[in-house]
């Protein structure tokens, strides 16, 4: 019984994680990006220093959707305090950002 439950939970976890992994694995391209920041970082300062602007309806505690003039500019955000930068096109749709 326990083995069956473990197999089912593993299967469900794999199904849940696979789409998220696919979204996060996409390379940063033109369009919105997801910037992951430490909670103590000044998000506006990170965006200003790296040339981005906030988009989307709200900002999450550790992340935000941003627009950059180029993928190169977006990839510079970790040098200004961001933890990571991901392609945000699919995430923007999930979050309801229409001005991306």
Amino-to-carboxy terminus distance? 48 Å
Strand sequence of the main sheet, in spatial order? Answer: 2-3-1-4
**Cα-based radius of gyration, to the nearest Å:** 16 Å
SSE series: HEHEEHEH
Count of alpha and pi helical runs: 4
Largest sheet: 4 strands, antiparallel
Question: Mean pLDDT score, rounded?
Answer: 81
Point out poorly predicted stretches: none
Kindly estimate the percentage of residues that lie in beta strands according to DSSP: 15-25%
Number of strands: 4
Question: How helical, in percent, are the residues?
Answer: 40-55%
Short account of what is shown:
With 100 residues, the protein is α+β, with helices and mostly antiparallel strands. The protein is built from four helices and four strands, in the order H-E-H-E-E-H-E-H.
Structure description:
The protein is of the alpha+beta class and 100 residues long. It has a domain at 27-95. The protein is 44% helix and 16% strand. The chain contains four helices and four strands. The protein has helices spanning 2-25, 43-50, 71-75, 89-95; strands at 33-36, 53-55, 63-67, 84-87. Strands 2-3-1-4 form a four-stranded antiparallel β-sheet, sandwiched between helices. The mean pLDDT is 81.
Q: Layout of helices and strands, plus pairs?
A:
Elements: H1 2-25, E1 33-36, H2 43-50, E2 53-55, E3 63-67, H3 71-75, E4 84-87, H4 89-95
Antiparallel strand pairs: 1-3, 1-4, 2-3
